[in-house]
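step: validate -> pass
step: tokenize input -> pass
step: predict -> running
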Amino acid sequence: MENNNETYIRPTWDEYFMEVARTIAKRATCDRGRSGCVVARDRQILVTGYVGSPTGLPHCDEVGHLFKKVTHEDGHETNHCVRTVHAEQNAICQAAKLGIALEGATLYCRMTPCRTCAMLIINCGIKRVVCEFSYHAGLESEEMFRDAGIQLDYVNTEILKYDKQ
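step: predict -> pass
step: emit ->
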């Protein structure tokens, strides 16, 4: 409820779309970094997506995670759940299924897109990415966005932490 002594401040468009992405994330079916994504252009939502297994396949929340260990160039190891399709990928697939062009759009997501998502985002013609948090393995994506001329903005530069990272 609004306090009558305070002036209401409308959210910016970035705040609005990021809040929608947070709500979309509640549908996610993998409890590791539950994420949602919104793609918008001209202040209109085009498509959304959330992290989850491919249609018809079991979800992490039902059968557990499918982990793959990745060894990075500097020798450190990280664990990635590969049972799911990322929120960004699902949003892009939704656009393809519905015949919606994403050229010139802005993508809102929970954390820096992974390398694969970054490549898809670049090839879709998306021109701006807004992330709520930084991703522990996002440096390569940041470099690709910079090289491709895609604007990357962070709401919070803190690295998002979750179990078995």
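step: describe -> The helical segments are 13-25, 60-63, 87-98, 115-124, 139-148.
step: cleanup -> pass
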